[in-house]
Each structure stands twice: as structure tokens, then as C-alpha cells.
# Entry
Amino acid sequence: MKRARYLGLLLALVMMFAAFSPAADAVGAGETHDITIVPRHSEGVTLSYDEAAFTLRVSDFYGLLKVEEDKTLRLTASFAQGWTYSETYTDFFRGYEDRVTVTGSGTQKTFTFSARRGDILTRDALDTVGIYASAAALPKLEINASVPFSQIGKEEYVSADFTLTLGTKQYSSGDYSGTGSIKGRGNTSWGQPKKPYSIKLSSKASLLDIPKTKKYAIIPSYSDPSLLRNYITYKAGLMLSGIDYVPKCEFVEVYLNGAYNGVYLLVERVSLESNKIDIGEATAEELTGGYLIEKDIDGKIDYSADQWFDCPYWANQSKDYFVLKEPEPDDASLKEAMLSYLTDYMQSVHEAILGSSAEPYTKYVDVDTWIDFIIVQELAKNIDGNLKTSCYLVKKAQDDKLYMTAPWDFDLAYGNPATTWNNADHTHNDYYDCPNATGLSDFMTINSSCPWFDHLYDDHEEFRNALTERYAEYRRTMIPAMLAMLDEEAAYISAAMPRDEQKWGVRFNSGVSALRDWLTGRIGWLDGEWLESEQIDLDLALNAAGGSLHFTTASPEFIGAVKDGRIAGMSGNAGQDSSTSSVSLTLAMAAGETLSFDYKVSTESGYDKLLFTVNGQNKLTESGEKDWTRYTFTAGSAGSYTFVWKYEKDYSFASGSDCVWIDEVDWSGGGDAGLPGDADDNGFVEAADALIVLRYSMGMDQIVPNERNADVNDSGTIDAEDALIILRMSMGIE
# Structure
């Protein structure tokens, strides 16, 4: 009778819980649901698999996904002529390579992944599964100028002939042959060996399916060893819902006057055209617009040729200006009137945003495009993306709003180690609020280097909320696509890269790997700032399976994170110069007992270091790039041992992911096995623990953080009998 009464009480608890829980088909914390995986593939690849069976049953787990079944997923990929399987850049459950098999010939391969119950995955790991191929040949762009290229400068166009021949990938626009002119372009990039050029065709033409235009550019990305930073920004930017124009681009191999000059990005130049930015042009009768404006700074402006006007703030090291890119009126008085109008207009924008006028910022700020702009720039942590330079804005006719448009120039973004400076200036902005461009943390655009973004984000909750909502939307759409296209396009151009590497000395594979690691880490940091997610418990992240060691950390704290398919502890001071992030553990150990752990390092070699100390004595120092490695300490005598893992950063610069990771900490002494019955590991045995165990045993798949505590009858399984015992324990009944 008592047993029935307790079971009845348990069932009543379950019913009460259900009454206040989401519907059974809703996905909530700990609930089990099926995820359909849709593998991606590049051109030249055809996939065959059972779409209905390409699913995994998972439950939510600290914002991650816990696999709730053993299952084998299998697909076959066929490769077309001219396309070769790219093992380096294919992502078929990356991080679980020990359970992935690839079999077959050069033209057809079968991929198999064996998932296991208890595996921890990120949603990104499922969203980015893809099979990719490299192209035997990229499009070939031959440019024959009327003078040697050594004589071509940035000021004057030189006549040239252009021939574009398609490679392995086919475009409906086909081959091209025509005339036009060419000149140099860029600022810092013009001084580099592999130079960028502006192209002006004699008549509009579509090259590589880019909409018809006369105005193209070829971008060398000399400072970007991956060559992908601009590409992934422009391609992912096509998925933005606010900004309606992003430049179109494709890769080409360039020959200058017959000489090979490397892999370039062919991109349409930003301009007012009906198939680009279609807003018309301002006139003497209609000074209110439309205008295409570029934000720039002193040192990058030709004061005699550019249509420049004052910026209402000075935030960067060099004085801030705007440049009217289009229209370019021949009438000097009309030009003066336009620049005068825009100077006054920008002052009104400035005062409304800073709250120094009675006008609301919404009169001037197009919220949708500004939010998109901020998200794109913060994803890339673009050193120039805080309205410093190469940022485009549009003012439409009879419309007070200022629109962001055409994200441009991301060579030095995404943690590029070539970016060794920040925008800090003691005189003209908050010096201590300007972050290093290479670290994973800190806002680059939302800071005092541009007062507009700083005030909008800090002072207007509705703007901030709209931004985080948009980021959450892109987190499931644009951002996984960006991660996938990084691998897809790296695979596409990889066969051509040895020629570029031989000429220019770049290290393409390591450049792509560093970009992927940095972007993954940056997304993780932004998730923590902009998404409502449950932080991964640090003890859970650091302990080996079944372990119950308790760790202590101090700010900037180690945090629980996902790395390479595992939950691990990650240092929390990326991008923070002259800082230390640490985590510690104290144990009473017997002689001969061991403490073992895995570690991984991605830091500036020789300067930013992982240190492991025991009772103050250093036992391990690592820096640079080091994959997961096991380390074991053995106690020489009985006593108290304090273990400290530290990531120490010096006063400048960062490299790699600027992080260290610790995982699988295991004490051979076993330590405290935990509190029997404490299924949720909160230090108490309560009716809630009984409810958790009962739901789990009934297949409702409530997460049980410590299954060893839940199996109180030591039967080897978690069942209703355990739930009954725990309920009695919570009621003080023996």
C-alpha cells in the first residue's frame, strides 16, 4: 500500500509538472526531438541518401544537443568530371573522425557516421555537414594593358583588353572578350606586392553571372592567407533581410600582360546603378537625394579630387570625413550645394543619435539596415567597420533616413593576425574602450570609436532588443551558411592555390584553418552576448565522465564551451592584453595517485601561454598551436595538492583562437562519488530529483546530469524503482 501511495504521489507530480510544461511536441530543455540533417554539397557533387532516415534523436543539453540513440548515417557522393573530392575541406561530422569512414573510388565515395547515445553536438555541427569538391580549373582572366603593369598607377585609367575563359564551373554568362581600361586601387593594399585594380569595361557586361556593369575590381587579398574573408562576407550578406545590396563576386586566376599573377576575387564595384543601388541621383531641383556616401578618414582622401565633406565627430586617430561618391556633378556650384546640404544633414543625424536635439534618432536611422550593418561588422570584428573607412551609406530623395549599404573590404577582419593595431586614440575617443582586432571578445563596432553605434546600443533598449532578435534569426540561417561556404569555397579554389602559394608565399590551408577557428570562437562570444542560453556548467565541462571534482575560477573566468565535438573548459580572456584567466582545484591525494587532463592550445607562440602549476611549481608550459594532448601528474607523497591552469597573455598582439582548453580532468583517487539521489547535482535530495528520474525512466528524456547519483539501487539502469527510493529519501523515510 505504501509503495502504491508513493508511486501515486510520483505520478501526481508528473501530471502537475505536465500542466505547467510546454506541449508534448514543443522543444524545451531536456525534451527529446528528432533533427533532420540536410547535408550540403558543392557544385560537381551529387548526393544519394535516405532523406527520411537522415535524422538524429536528440535532447537539449545546456544549449547543446545530446544524442539519444545509437544510429548510423550513410550517404554516397558522386563527383562529376573535372571535380575532385576535397578531403581537407569536407565536413562530415568534423570532430568525430574516429567514427567516420570513407570508402570508394575517385568518382564515388560513401560516407558513414556512427552516432552514439550520449554524444554531445552543436546545432552548427549538424547544419554544416557537407561534401565538397575542388575544381580542376578556375575561370581565367587575362588582362593585356597598353603599358607594362609596373607603369600603371591609381590616378589614371590605362586602356586594356580583357578575356575571361570559364574553368570547371560553368556560368550562364559564358566566356567574355572585350575592351576597356584599368588602374590601380586601394590604400594600404596598393603598396603590397600583389596589387588590386579597378576595371572599367567599354560597355556593360555580365562576368561570371555578376549583373551587367562596366565597373569591376580584382581584389588580391594579399593580407588574407585564406583569400576567403571578403568572399564569405559578400556571399553570406546576400541572406541579409535589411541591407538590400551586397556586392557580387567570384574567384578568378589573373594573368597580367601574359604573366600569371595569382588567384583574385572578381567583384562588382559599388555604384548607383539599377541592378545595384537603385535610388536615382540628386539634382539641383532635388538636393535631398539620392546620394551614395562613403565614410573615410584623413590620409585616405584626395582633397583636390574627392567630393569630401566634414564628419560631425572625430573618433579615430585620423580626422573623420565623408566622401560623396555619386553623383559627381560637373557644375561646381551644384557640387558645393550638395556638399553643404549633406554637411548639415549629417549634423542633424549626429545630434538626434546623441540626444542633443529634440528629434528622435528614428527620424534619421533606418533601423533594419543599421542592425544588419552592426551584425556583419561584429561577426567579422572589422577594424574598419565602425564607420572608420570603406563603409557605404545611402541618402534617398525626400527621405530623412540614412541607410547602410554595400558591406565592403574585410581583408583585415576576422582576427587577421596582420591587424596589429586598434582604433584607440587618447585625444579623440575613449582609449580604453577600443578593442584589439584579433581577439575573440569585445565589440568592435559598438564602442566609442564611433559614437553613433555606441549610443544606439547603450541608450536605446528597443534598438538593442531588435538587434539581438535579428542576430538570433541569422544564427539559424546566415551564420551556419557562412561557416559552410568557408569550407565549400576553400575546396573549390584549393587545386589552384599551389600556383598562388608558389608566387606569393601564402599558406592557404593554415590560413583557412585559422579563419575557421577564429570565426567559430567569435560566434561563440557573440552568442554569449546576444542569445539567451544556459551557460555550460564548468564542472561538467572539465570533469572526465562520471567525475565529481569541483573547480574554482576567477574573472576573467574559464567557461564551459564546445570544442572539437567535446565539452571543455575554455579560457575567458581572449583579446584582453596583459591578463590571466585561471581555474584551480585542490585535492588531498595519496602517494602514487594521479591527476590527468587533456589540453589544447591556440595562441601567439612564445608569448601567450598555458601554464599548469602544482602547489605553485610550474609543471607545463605550452604556446602556439597544439592539438589535444594528455598530461598526467603523479603525487610523490601524501598531502594536499593545489592545481592551477592559467592562460597568461602579454601586453600586445594575439594569434590563432587566442584561447586554451582543458578537458577530461580525472583523479585516480576517484574523489567524492556525489550524493546518492541528487539527480540534478544541486547538493540536495528533493522530490524534484525523484520527478527527474521518473520522467527519464518513462522515456520523457529529462536530462539527468549525474546518472551515477540517480541509479540509487545499483541496478545498472535508471528506473521507477530509483524514483521511488529517491522520493522516500527526500521525505526522510529510510
About this structure: The two ends are 16 Å apart (CA to CA). Residues 31-132 form one domain. The CA atoms of residues 364 and 400 lie 5 Å apart. The chain is about 25% helix and 30% strand.
